[in-house]
Amino acid sequence: MDEGGSVELVVVIGANPPDRLDKALARDVPEEASLSRSRLMRMIEAGVVSRGDAVLRDVKARVAEGDQIVLLVEAPEALAAEPEDIPLVVVHEDDDLIVLDKPAGLVVHPAPGTPRGTLVNALLHHCGDSLSGIGGARRPGIVHRIDKETSGLLVVAKSDRAHHGLAAQFEAHTVERVYLALVQGVPDAGDPRLRGVPGVGFEAGGVVRIATRLDRHRFDRQKQAVFFDRGRHAVTRARVLEGLGTPPQLALVECRLETGRTHQIRVHMAHAGHGLVGDPVYGGRRKVSATALPAGGAEAVAAFPRQALHAAVLGFEHPVSGAQMRFEAELPDDMAGLLALLRG
Q: In this structure, are 237 and 205 located in the same domain?
């Protein structure tokens, strides 16, 4: 950190960079830095972006693969989280990490609008001073996130060596992450409509592969959107486990993440025309036939209060011992209850 209260962020330009500095940075800057392209443009013009000894003030400056671009980012105001006695479902815990089954409705880390009642507050009470400090005051120990209204498995680092090791595995896309989702319609690989959707392909075993780029929505900065000319590479593989209804109106789908971008499954399934049940942002309004579902099924689907998404499987190599770790979490009561009703 420099004397002005800024921190250095080094961005390494990846392969086939866009033809402008601002676009290249927007593509390659770490997602957790939360730097929009417009903010990056302002930083370039303010003279806080450099390459070697040269300050880069032109947003249209050329960059090459491997360039190390240094950004002086204003340090966020410290948001010191306080320990809170919030119940946690601990699936596994050792000296270096803890695996949790997060309930829907629990925010992962404090933010200006949610300073208390988060998973971090609960972890500080449960773990005391043993959490990794790499995440700083806002998010100690947090290696990855799942959305507030998504339930399921999450690993948190208790030691700095575990934090580094886990972060490297997430960066290399070697962590196994499997989600269960209830979606509108049935994303069957044999559906000819899907074959016309950009970015959608098919693999053996009835797998639908969705590969796009994801970036902030052009008009709503709280949303993500599919792009093909900018944003971060994102790949989701979806496989139908069960059709629901006669004829099927909905489906229980297994989604495997190759990458882990913000809202990735929600955006990708909506892009394919099969938004998640209960998703107020991306779910869409596909009509469900009440007569094709058991009594009360259509009403229960319409009233489901959150995106029907659950992080069911989490697998990784223990960053210290090297042991292979794999955990499974059953569906929470709300999704299990809806599924039982839809099965009749």
A: yes
